[in-house]
Amino acid sequence: xxxxxxxxxxxxxxxxxxxxxxxxxxxxxxxxCRAEVAVMPSLVHLEQVFQALEGSEVVLGAQNCxxxxxxxxLTGEVSASQLLDFSCTYVLVGHSERRQLxxxxxxxxxxxxxxxxxxxxTPILCVGETLAERESDQTLNVVxxxxxxxxxALGVQAFSRAVVAYEPVWAIGTGLTATADQAQQxxxxxxxxxxxxxxxxxxKLRILYGGSVKSTNAVxxxxxxxxxxxxxxGASLNADxxxxxxxxxxx
Length: 251
Ligand code: 13P
Hints:
Pathway: Carbohydrate metabolism; erythritol degradation; Carbohydrate degradation; glycolysis; D-glyceraldehyde 3-phosphate from glycerone phosphate: step 1/1; Carbohydrate biosynthesis; gluconeogenesis. Helices cover about 45% and strands about 15% of the residues. The protein has helices at about 15-30, 45-55, 80-85, 95-100, 105-120, 130-135, 140-155, 180-195, 200-205, 215-220, 240-250; strands at about 5-10, 35-40, 60, 90-95, 120-125, 165, 205-210, 230.
């Protein structure tokens, strides 16, 4: 049985004041949740969130890290080992905003994935197609290609300590959500692809859906057999809304 995971990706949002408010509402809203809950603040708020989460069941994650796991001379970057110092449980790698807007390629994604794992942290590998790719029937080619980049470089066992997040680029921040059937189809294809290398790893692999997840569509999405929770952007900035999504994943 895969325990559902709901991760709130706060992206580049928040001030110390708004983060404090969000945290107090969220800790209330997520109490006794059956799903595992993670929050991923902007790095400037990591210490604040780390302290606020102490003693709670909500775990901490980061949105990105450097390609090398250790500390070093790399201005402006943060290494996975530094994230471990804050007990980060998860780190996102290959989010589409970084792939599309910052030119992150599969090779960098593989290095970050490996850096995260080498520090004992679980990477959440983000994959997803653009609207043009979906409209030209390239969805599975693109998504499975992004998964394969890691599989080929690091082997299938790397997925026994990882999470995958399917986030169609056209559904992120747009209010457009993949239908539950559309998402399920891609999630099943990802699982099958991994199963071709190792059925047990594939069966245990959690695959999250991301892209305009809200309390109103979460129940239907999370009811799908291969959707094991969500990676939530905008709706994770509202404690009540995020709490409702977490409860939807726990049911
Ligand atoms: P939204 O939920 O705002 O569409 O963002 C999804 C996302 O990118 C999470 O990583």
